Amino acid sequence: MKESGPIPLLTRRRAGVLLHPTSLPGSYACGDIGHEAYRFIEFIAAAGFSLWQMLPLGPTHSDHSPYLCLSANACNPDLISLDWLRDHGYIATLNADREAGEGLRQRKLAEAFASFTSNAHAWHAAFDDFLRAEAEWLDDYALFMVIRAHHDEMPWYRWEAPLRNRESGALARYRQRYPEEIKFQQFCQFIFQQQWRELRAYAQRHGVYLFGDLPIYLSLDSADTWVNREIFLLDAEAAPRYVAGVPPDFFAAQGQRWGNPIYNWHYLEQTGFAWWQQRVKRQLELFDLLRIDHFRGLQAYWRIPAEAATAVEGEWIEAPGDALLHSLQTKLGSLPFVAEDLGMITAEVDALRSKYRLPGMKVLQFAFDGDPANIYLPHNHQHNAVVYSGTHDNDTSVGWYRQLDEGSRQRVRDYLQLNETTEITWPLLTATLASVANTAIIPLQDLLGLDSEARMNTPGTTAGNWGWRFSWQQIPYELAPRLRHLCRLYGRCD
């Protein structure tokens, strides 16, 4: 096979910001892709940054984790902008409803759907085109969400057998009884796509590219698992035989038992990885660049017996990652991927990433263990890499530094040439942007110098995550020009 070339978007030096849209400010229960997202793009561009990295966009369960979504293809209706719907005449004024809580968005989406279906709208033809273009995943997803709603959000593997096993008569009855509810789910995805296309076009006009995140695994309770049981290692009752996770590492002494079902890689390979090809194609319709979460799982994955209480009892099993990436390259052309290669990385994982010329990740918070050969130290970085001050799974850099023991703090100070009273924020940002790695990504929390209260996620925990939001009052006027100066200084913008 001909060796892959470099990713065109990452052949020049760039800088970007990591921020999930739910963290944008606003008057509603979570941030969305409306007016504040446009303003954030303007901030990114003014700062000299040209990448906006975010977490997966899929619809979430009640814990709001974007890494355990209800669909590999659908987008989260909670991100739909109500202001956009009002501006386009789908709904009435919002002023009296802004404090109405999380149910507001669903009610207003229902209002918009009623307006859309009861009036001759210019977008009816576009909606029909959308239904045809996305039917491969959209029809099953919409039906799944309607059945789930009529089962009080119960996971599909607890539904009665005819629905759980997708018997044609049972599915037909739901389609006949609830056509408008199914159409509403499709409408929400259509509206998201309309808003997203406008936002992405606006970003591109400002020289900003959108950088997404592809979780390697799916939630057991997802439309894809319900529809495609054969691509997962499930028993006759739809229970996982094995679950995913990682062995003990930097993040968790007992390892991490994620609980996602493991793929039936043999079946996937026999079918030419068609499911993966469709999934990746869909994501590349949304994003210019994708991070492959847990890339090492494409070479070998940690397989934990489903009955095991922790990840310690797992074992490494080889996966056909080379064959998968080859099939994606053959089907889609270039692979605009960044490999999340953190944790226990072997020579085989590095060889797979290198074969396809995929940049890996260098996180500065992992750098200061006293070993000058540490691969995360800036003097050991490579051009074809993405350097991060921290990620969504790390504490903020200020919180991380304050919680280090004195010996570790001294190593950080020695490397960055700081004294004991110097704040860590700007020296660490400068080290990130100065790295020889072509791409530098900084979480907004680090740009703002925020402490641990702004942390996005703590791996291995299920409560208190994913809810952080910023306010524009936290962004001083001088921040964008100061960042732009650093981006120019280190060749990351014009």
Describe this structure in words.
The protein has helices at residues 35-46, 82-87, 103-118, 124-133, 135-149, 161-164, 168-177, 179-205, 223-227, 265-270, 274-284, 321-332, 347-355, 397-403, 406-416, 425-434, 444-447, 479-489, and strands spanning 14-18, 51-53, 209-214, 242-246, 256-261, 289-292, 300-305, 315-318, 337-339, 360-363, 385-388, 439-443. With 494 residues, the protein is α/β, with parallel strands linked by helices. The protein has a domain at 228-335. The chain has an eight-stranded parallel sheet with strand order 9-6-3-2-1-12-11-10. It has a four-stranded antiparallel sheet with strand order 5-4-7-8, with no helix packed on it. The two termini are 37 Å apart.
How is this structure best summarized?
The chain is an alpha/beta fold and 494 residues long.
Task: Outline the secondary-structure elements.
Blueprint: E1 14-18, H1 35-46, E2 51-53, H2 82-87, H3 103-118, H4 124-133, H5 135-149, H6 161-164, H7 168-177, H8 179-205, E3 209-214, H9 223-227, E4 242-246, E5 256-261, H10 265-270, H11 274-284, E6 289-292, E7 300-305, E8 315-318, H12 321-332, E9 337-339, H13 347-355, E10 360-363, E11 385-388, H14 397-403, H15 406-416, H16 425-434, E12 439-443, H17 444-447, H18 479-489
Parallel strand pairs: 1-2, 1-12, 2-3, 3-6, 6-9, 10-11, 11-12
Antiparallel strand pairs: 4-5, 4-7, 7-8
Helix pairs in contact: 4-5, 5-8, 11-12
